[in-house]
Amino acid sequence: MNNNLGEKVSYIKGLAEGLGLQKENTKEARILISIIELLEDVVDAIDELEASQAEQDEYLDAINEDLTDIQNDIYGEDEDEDMDEGTHYVEVTCPHCQETVYFDEEVFEEEDDIICPNCGKPIYEEDEYDEDEGEE
What we know:
Helix content is 64%, strand content 11%. It is mainly alpha-helical. It folds into two domains: 3-75; 79-135, no CATH class. The strands form two sheets. A two-stranded antiparallel ribbon has the order 1-2. Strands 3-4 form a two-stranded antiparallel sheet. A hairpin with a 6-residue loop joins β3 (114-115) and β4 (122-124). α1 (3-18) packs antiparallel against α2 (27-75). The longest helix has 49 residues, at 27-75. It is rod-shaped.
């Protein structure tokens, strides 16, 4: 990426050589030659940093892909797809932690107590659920 910087430094170095600064033994010539050498070192250091950054970016991308794979293994391929596949979810606000959670409606038919996945406390207990059905 810093070819442009490298090219500019090479151009300046060529100008200095064209002026014969390498042969001159003046203070000004030595300063200019030292500045050009310093610029070459700076361009080399920037090139090394960019190469290192590119390597870090590749490593980070690999970690991100691995993490995505792990998330897909744990939570399923795509949570949004699961919600659209004909499964009906019931939105419930936990009375203890006030978090909104979603349950497959079949859980209400199968489970005795409905436990909040966030706080671990019961959202609906079997007795309370039976009373609610009796009211309808």
